[in-house]
Structure formats: C-alpha cells, structure tokens
Amino acid sequence: MDHDHDHSHDHDHSHDHSHDHSHGEAPVLGDEDAAPSAGRAPHRHDDGPGEAGVAPPPHHPGHGPIPERGHEASHEHGGAPARPLLTEGSGRGKVLFLDTFSGISGDMAIAALLDLGVPLLVIERALSALPLEDFHLHRGHAHRSAIVATSFEVHLEGTQPLRTWSTIDAMLAAAPLDAAVADLARRIFRRLGIAEATVHRTTLEDVHFHEVGAVDAIVDIVGAAAAFVWLGAEVICSPLPRGRGFVRAAHGPLPLPAPAVVSCLEGCPTYPVDIDFELVTPTGAAIAATVASGFERWPAMAPQRVGWGAGHRELGDRPNLLRVVLGDRDGASSREMGASTATHVVIEANVDDMTGELAGHALDAILAAGALDAWAVAATMKKGRPGLVVSALAEVANADAIASAVLRETTSIGVRMIPVTRTERPRRVITVTTPFGSVRVKVSEGPYGPAQAKPEFDDCVALARESGVPVREIVAAATTAARREI
C-alpha cells in the first residue's frame, strides 16, 4: 500500500512558504551558477552579492573554508551594508529562541537563520553532500508590516523519484555530512516519518513521501540541521499556534492542524488561533519538536541578535514571519527571571499534623488534579515537631487549581506559590512488544545526547502479575525493545 507523505509539499504551499514563482517578492539580482548534477552543490539564486570573495561550495563538503566573516545580501533599505556573518559556534553557551507567533515551516526556519547571520554556504555545503538533482535554491527578501525579512525557496526543475523514509534515512546515513548534522537531520526525519506512520496506520519503513514534497523536506531538514549545528546554541521554542480549517493534500482535504502535525507535536505546548490557515507545517513541527530543549513564551535572556524568516502570503491579523533571537541567559537580570517569564509554579505547604497515609493520599489527589509532579520532604518544624513539606509542580495556567487541591487534601492552612521556568526534553510515547506483552514507553529526546526510554511502570507491573516473572525482567525487556525503535 502506498502511503504518500501528503504534507511536506502541499502543506508548505498552504502556509505560503511555497516554492512557486508567484510570491511577488524582489526579483532575482544575482548571476546563476551551472545547473546541478548528482552530488554537486545546489544551484542558487541569491539577491545581492552573497559572501564576498568566497568560492561556491566544492564537490565534497569537507573541502574549502566557510568564511568566518563576510557579508550576506543586504536587507536594508537603500542598500546599507549587512551585519557580519556569524562564525561557527557563535551560539555555544547561548540561547536561540524560536518566536513562532505566526507558526513555523522548514523554509521559514532556514530563512530566519540565514537572516540571523548563518552563512548560506553552510546550507549549500550540507546539501552538496546529498545525491539530489534537479533543484535550485533562492534566497531573497520580503516586506512584512515594514519588517524586511529573508525568504528561502526550493525550486524544482524536474521529476523526482519516489522516496520512502527508509531510503531517505539511508541516504542521510551514507552521505558525507558532518556527523552532528547527519544525526540531527535523521532524528528530525524520523519524527516526521513516525508521525506519518501513525496517521496512515503503517510501519515507519513503509511510509512513502510525496515525490515532490520529499525534496522540499530533505532540503529544509538537512539545511536547518546544518544551521542549528553551526550555531551550537540551546534552542527554546515558543508554544506553537494552531490554525483551523482544512488543507488540500494528495489524497484529499485534511483538517487543520494536519494529522501529521498533531503527531509531531506530542508533548509540545500549543494554543488555538482564530484563523483559517496552516500556521505549522509537518516539516516545521518536526524541526521545532526535535531541536527545542523546552517551550517558553519568552525565555529570560539578553537578546544579542535577531533574524526574520518570511512566509509568502500576507496574513490578515499578523505578519507572516518567524523571529529567531540569539541571546545570553547569563545577561538576564534576576528581575527578568521573575513571574512574568515563568512557565510553571511550585506550590508548597508545611504540615506537621498529618500521618504518612494521609500524605500519600494527598500526593495522589494532587497529581489527579493535574499537577505535573508532587512530592513530600521530611522537615523539622517549629518547637522541634517532625513534619513534611508537601510540594507540587504545575503549569502557570493550572496553578490555582493545584493550590486548591493542596489545601483541600492536606491539613495546611496556607500555601506558597513560587514562579519557576522549566527546561525539558521533548517527549513522546511509543508502544513496544515484549515476550510478555505490550508496554508503553516514554521516549525523551532533544539535543542532550542519546534518547532516553522509560517503560510505563504500571504496564510492567500488570504483565509481571500475569506472567509470574519479576517486574524488573519486564522493565528490561521493554527497555531493550524501545532502544531498537528509537
């Protein structure tokens, strides 16, 4: 059965991060290089002079220097000079914030990173390592609400072969890419493939990508991976907006958010937007969910540099832009770390007249009320009385409900509410098959090294009772099965 990838091409068009020639942006000003062939650098159009004095990328991505300083095409009115390019590793120890007030797609992500100062040659060199033909790139600029932003497009010049997730993953594994770029690109594509497999009720290996959209997705994912690795910053993303309505895909209309987008964003915060438009594409969702170490409305940081990536259609209530902000967490003052930037709240209560059984029941009730975590720590109270500090972690929006649960279920007459920010790994839940039965496993990923897998303990306990084996054997079998899939 052929399960086309319905979204990465059609949906990006719907979001008008499209790759046609009708976007009405600035005309092409640069000269064109020779048309590409397999394994060669992608042919590009580039408004302006590009990186001054730097040769196009060679056949092998490991040859030839990427410039440490130079000038991209000017995006200023009157041709004012652009800022110097960022050097490799400019983001180490810093925060890169993806401000997705109008959503995100793959080409918007690359455009914003180019506008921030990542050299275009970083993208081109990564793509030149891939055996892709019959496409070229266009970096331009667009005006949105008087903001001049960078645009990025992939133009296709011929038909493309059918590509499955397996063939794309094998291509990325075999390509002479930087190891960190290949790893990140494969993890992004795996998330996208798993989302499609979930929607189509098929296996990851059997997912087929739309013959045109696959090229767009490969370019966007590999290019974005190269840019993120080049910077080396911790990535924080804002909660993602959900549009509404329908989008036309290869097999017919789909509701928004698209099914693959919802699957990609498991565990990621989203919020509704009253607009009939696809604000987050599957490729954009896969990128954001994979690279972000956490989601905040705006992180505590001292901004140092801003980049703007443009979509191609004007939206009625907001500029169709992605803003990326590179900044220093250490430069944020203690005042900036206060409640206005908090994403979560710790609720605490001191109790010295509650039994252990009641404390255990209170923790269960607090978790049932919606707390993300709850715990009790032994403490010595006034007059030397033994007691407990009962604590809970809650999202800001749910803090009052959790505080009410603490007051209701404990003997305390007051609670403390402490605003905090939380950085967390993106997570998803998979189901694995063991010799003893099926077990749900929580998989935590993100740019923190290898993914972690934690079997659902209640599932393991139930199977241990049924099979008569120690629960630790169920946990070990589920962990081994999960590692084969992640």
Structure overview:
This protein is α+β, with helices and mostly antiparallel strands and 486 residues long. It is built from twelve helices and 21 strands. It has helices at 10-14, 106-116, 120-128, 165-174, 179-200, 213-231, 259-264, 282-291, 356-368, 399-409, 457-467, 471-485; strands at residues 43-46, 95-99, 135-144, 147-156, 163-164, 208-209, 234-237, 240-244, 246-249, 252-255, 270-276, 294-295, 302-310, 321-328, 344-351, 373-380, 386-395, 416-420, 427-434, 437-444, 452-455. The chain has a five-stranded mixed sheet. Strands 16-17-15-18 form a four-stranded antiparallel sheet, with helices on one face. The chain has a three-stranded mixed sheet with strand order 1-3-4. Strand 16 (373-380) and strand 17 (386-395) form a beta hairpin. Helix 2 (106-116) runs parallel beside helix 6, helix 3 (120-128) crosses helix 6 (213-231) and helix 11 (457-467) packs across helix 12 (471-485). The relative contact order is 0.13.
Q: What attributes does this structure have?
A:
alpha+beta; five-stranded mixed beta sheet; four-stranded antiparallel beta sheet; 21 strands; 29% helix; 26% strand; disordered N terminus
Stretches with pLDDT under 50, minimum 5 residues: 1-41, 48-80, 333-339
The total count of helices amounts to 12
Distance between the termini: 24 Å
> How many strand units?
21
Radius of gyration: 25 Å
Mean pLDDT: 80
Strand arrangement, major sheet: 12-7-2-14-13
Q: What percentage of residues falls in helices of 4 or more residues?
A: 25-40%
By helix and strand content, what is the structural category?
Answer: alpha+beta
